[in-house]
Specification:
Largest sheet: 4 strands, antiparallel
Structural class: mainly beta
Radius of gyration: 79 Å
Distance between the termini: 240 Å
Number of helices: 0
């Protein structure tokens, strides 16, 4: 086995390590080709007293960077391989032991290893002007260990910019051509005004009632934006027929009925009580000699009234005579019924009996009387009477 130890400048991420500064790394190679490091034990001891084993083995090559021993389950704590200051060195000894027990020892020296630091003096090239890729500066010693070079202008990279369709509320833009690097426009976009909403005729989403407002919703035919308008209450509409109407009778009150809304049934105007109409009576008419009657216009089955006649005083129709009856009448002042009755004959009313013709010897006398009303005469003849002598009183 013939080993060679060299120092490499390796980024910390070279073997899937976390990113960081460039670290010094021992690069060990077996030039004899007899053994591979997979079968060997390699141990490093620095003059500073630090020591450790190689952790990354692949064929006949091995790396040493103690900072990452813990990534592979190494028991020793992570040890950072030192990086000497500029102009200084650190010595060390590498000992490799093969499986057959043979050992080879190699001295090596670690010199200052510039760390990749920030790039300085860098000027980015633009589309129209060249640039400079910058100088590399060591993060430890500050030396610029690598100078940069000029870079050419990149030239414009015009790409199409899609048009922006305007919406109802947001302006749009026409298509254009723009450099993707510097942003300069070859064909500038122009603003397209917002379209504004285009609302439909609206849909009644909440119908109004007689007393409550409704809602009409308008929707934009492009973006579905909506706004609403209030619909005034429809108000009550009176039905053509009254509700609860009760016709009065001649004796029973009725009800005028309520004016109600034909839509919702609410009472618009409350009805009132209608007084009984009372009988519509006809004229009084005689009903026999003792009474008169009158009948309701709806017929006798509805109502009929009886009242006795109200007669006037008797009035003579025909005066009675001595031998003939007279008559008298009276009339009902309500119905006009007339009642008549006979007045008995008065009979003669004679004067006192008187001699109308005196009797003489040869003449028959007449005695009589006259009726004072009708003049009827009664005459009776008589002869002269002999006068009897008066008898003695003693007899």
């Amino acid at each position: 086995m013939n080993i060679q130890v060299t120092q490499k400048s390796t980024k910390s991420g070279a073997v899937n390590r976390p990113e960081g500064n460039v670290l010094p790394c021992l690069y060990v190679t077996d030039t004899s080709g007899d053994e591979t490091f997979e079968n060997c034990t390699c141990h490093v001891v620095l003059d500073t007293g630090l020591s450790g084993d190689l952790y990354y083995i692949s064929g006949k090559k091995a790396f040493l960077s103690w900072q990452y021993q813990h990534y592979y389950g190494e028991t020793p704590p992570p040890i950072k391989l030192p990086n000497p200051e500029k102009g200084q060195t650190i010595g060390g000894t590498l000992t490799c032991t093969s499986p057959n027990g043979s050992t080879i020892t190699k001295r090596f020296t670690i010199v200052h290893n510039h760390q990749y630091g920030s790039t300085v003096n860098k000027v980015n090239a633009t589309c129209t002007e060249g640039g400079y890729n910058g100088d590399y500066k060591c993060g430890l010693c500050g030396d610029i260990y690598k100078t940069g070079s000029s870079t050419s202008a990149r030239g414009h990279n015009f790409t199409s910019v899609k048009a922006v369709t305007p919406t109802c509320t947001t302006p749009g833009k026409t298509g254009g051509t723009k450099c993707s690097r510097c942003g300069i426009w070859d064909v500038a976009q122009e603003t397209v005004p917002a379209l504004g909403h285009s609302y439909d005729d609206g849909v009644i989403t909440t119908p109004p009632t007689c007393t409550e407002p409704g809602i009409k919703t308008f929707t934009c035919t492009r973006c579905n934006d909506q706004f609403t308008e209030e619909i005034a209450p429809s108000g009550h509409t009176a039905a053509s027929e009254l509700s609860g109407y009760i016709a009065p009778t001649h004796t029973t009150p009725g009800y005028s009925g309520d004016v109600v809304c034909k839509t919702c049934g609410a009472i618009i105007t409350k009805g009132t009580t209608v007084q009984a109409s009372g009988h519509v009576m006809g004229e009084w008419s005689p009903n026999g000699g003792t009474e008169h009657i009158r009948v309701c216009a709806d017929g006798p089955e509805c109502n009929i009234e009886h009242e006795p006649h109200t007669f006037s005083e008797w009035a003579t129709s025909v005066d009675p005579a001595c031998l003939e009856e007279g008559s008298q009448h009276r009339e009902c002042s309500i119905c006009g019924y007339q009642e008549e009755q006979a007045i008995p004959a008065l009979g003669h009313s004679y004067t006192a009996l008187a001699v109308k013709v005196k009797a003489a010897k040869s003449v028959i006398g007449v005695v009589g009387c006259d009726c004072t009303r009708c003049g009827h005469q009664i005459r009776t003849p008589f002869t002269k009477l002999k006068r009897n002598k008066p008898q003695n009183k003693s007899n």
